[in-house]
Predict the 3D structure of the following.
Amino acid sequence: MAKEHVLKVAGHPSIYAPAQPREFTLYFCEPQNGVTSETGLLLLIPGFGANAQSKVYKKMRSLFADKYNLVTIQCDYFGWEFMQNSLAGKISLNLEQLKTIIPPEQISQVITSNSIDLQNLLELGSQHNTTIDITCIPPETPTNFNDMGLMQALDNLAAIGYVMAILEDNKCTFDTSKIIVYGHSQGAYLSYLCNALTPNLFTLLIDNSAWIFPLYSKALRTLTMISGQLQVNIYYDYLARRINDFDQDILHLPNLYTQFSNSTQILSYHGIDDELISFKQKQAFCSHINNCLLIPIGKSAVDNIKFKSTKHGLGADFLELFEDAIQKFSAGNFPLNRNPIKPTELHYISAKHQYQVTYDQGIPILKKFAL
């Protein structure tokens, strides 16, 4: 069985606030038989509603380490806690409507001064044929919020940088030609962002339903949950929509990917009925990137094993999708004799800022300068 390690490590200070020390939790598994020159690295990046402690990701870290001879890596990246399906912070709803479906003696099981127990609401209200709308402003601050962009990417890159440093310190030689990043939805978007911030690091990028821009930095995130006859619509209003120093232009992948030459093999799985980013938009983006293979998921691809839907997320089985990607990528054969990647200084430009990325022992440091 793969051996898991959990560490607290230093994180990049928030680029949206005066510099303060911060840390995040790093998780990684090494194969049961140890790390050899044939062992690769896999960075897993979850999206909304999931995290490093979700059952599916814990399973993937352990299973993939042994099955594919990989050191599997994840982290609790910047603002991850505000991306879950819970309700906390400033909550707005029709309290009188709530009282019509929840008995007075049970209201305290559902709502407190600054949070709602969503599970209890769904269970206690399931017999009522009604719709409840809830708006949630999570308790974010500029020092820690769901920025959906640069800070989240920096933490994920730091995570893989720390693991590489740990392996090197322990005289473990690993396969630098087998470095993979795998993400779902926002996690897949962050995979593209990580790839841009460290060109040539990754051998393979596996994308399940990435958008080309973090939609919820402009619009409310809508989550609909149904229990029996009750429907609950939750609208998350994130700080990224309102913070003054938030640069949306740098987060637009078509803009970012014109500023470097991609050498990473990209396998992009995208549903033809994706409701968050159309297949045509994704097709246009991928067509302008070197080494990007767009894999359309239509009705004929829905096998109820790997894919259960042609919409966003594909109803995918994450384990089966990974197996499919590995098989598609040269039948699992990675390029041989690839030289170790040593990141150098990078520069990117948006409409507002110039960004400089440097590296200290493989850990990225970002600075931005107003134009």
Observations:
- The first helix runs from residue 55 to 67.
- The chain has two domains: 3-83+144-213+248-343, 90-137+224-239.
- The first strand starts at residue 3 and ends at 11.
